[in-house]
């Protein structure tokens, strides 16, 4: 599978999403109001429905699609701990710069590109998420030609591509918004940040997920509904960009859940207009989605 990685420029949102304005979203039909015709998906024979509406299904990767942090999992391929001079490099905002140093150290300790790839293939998927992704892909191909599946992640293109292509059947998103990872001549991974930004205090320097999401919708939308699934602090920003028309799936007992219960993040009160659904397994997400 060839991962599509796109660098997005900032641009105003369409009417589907807001950036804090007072414009009311267009009224849309509720799930039970949409005229539907039953069909059965080929992978599991479960009932779904035909609709002319286009939906956007957006997923985080670490602790959402996979049930752990893919970056830290890679460190398990070697036995020696990361040296202190490398750990001191991390200042809380430069994760990708730190991980590039880690990847180089792992390679020097015998953790080759191929060994890392094998480790990523062995990552445990979050329960029910592969089935959910397959159902989205099936519905997108069969019915919703305008619907899209995207990944918005602070991981990297190599990890995401390797894991999704190893699913049975492989899953190919319409777009992966993440940091680029390339194999060097020396055999280790070199990371290129998705961007360098300082405007958004909710997100790290290398990727503002909210801005990236707005740009994608401005380019490929409008969508009848946006479904965003995540778990971490960097999923707060895109959640604040959604409207009453959309749904945010928040993984229970992870950072995003705790931040929302607190009501503020990095000194700012949160204002999330979208419907919030807490989840532990993929089936809880699936019940709330229209396919």
Automatic annotation (TrEMBL):
GO terms for molecular function: metal ion binding; phosphatase activity. Pfam families: Put_Phosphatase. Its cofactor is Mg(2+). The active site is at 60 (nucleophile), 62 (proton donor). Residues 1-29 are annotated as: Disordered. Keywords: Hydrolase, Magnesium, Metal-binding. Substrate binds at residues 71, 154. Mg(2+) binds at residues 60, 62, 231. Belongs to the HAD-like hydrolase superfamily. PHOSPHO family. This is Putative phosphatase phospho1. It comes from Folsomia candida. The lineage of its organism: Eukaryota, Metazoa, Ecdysozoa, Arthropoda, Hexapoda.
């Amino acid at each position: 599978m060839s991962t599509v990685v796109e660098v997005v420029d900032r641009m105003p949102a369409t009417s589907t999403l807001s950036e804090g304005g007072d414009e009311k979203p267009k009224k849309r039909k509720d799930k039970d109001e949409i005229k539907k015709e039953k069909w059965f998906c080929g992978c599991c024979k479960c009932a779904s429905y035909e609709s002319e509406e286009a939906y956007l299904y957006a997923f985080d990767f670490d602790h959402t699609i996979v049930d752990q942090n893919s970056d830290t999992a890679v460190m398990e391929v070697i036995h020696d701990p990361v040296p202190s001079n490398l750990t001191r490099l991390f200042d809380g905002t430069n994760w990708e710069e730190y991980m590039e140093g880690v990847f180089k150290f792992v390679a020097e300790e015998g953790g080759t590109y191929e060994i890392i790839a094998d480790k990523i293939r062995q990552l445990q998927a979050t329960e029910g998420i592969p089935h959910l992704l397959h159902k989205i892909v099936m519905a997108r191909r069969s019915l919703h030609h305008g619907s899209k599946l995207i990944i918005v992640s602070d991981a990297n293109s190599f990890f995401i591509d390797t894991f999704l292509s190893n699913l049975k059947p492989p899953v190919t998103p319409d777009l992966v918004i993440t940091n680029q990872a390339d194999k060097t001549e020396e055999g280790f991974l070199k990371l290129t940040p998705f961007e360098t930004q300082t405007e958004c205090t909710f997100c790290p320097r290398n990727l503002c997920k909210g801005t990236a999401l707005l740009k994608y919708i401005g380019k490929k939308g409008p969508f009848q509904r946006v479904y965003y699934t995540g778990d971490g602090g960097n999923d707060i920003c895109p959640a604040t960009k959604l409207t009453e028309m959309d749904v945010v799936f928040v993984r229970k007992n992870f950072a995003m859940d705790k931040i929302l219960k607190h009501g503020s993040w990095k000194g700012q009160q949160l204002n999330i207009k979208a419907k919030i659904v807490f989840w532990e397994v993929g089936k809880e997400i699936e019940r709330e989605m229209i396919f």
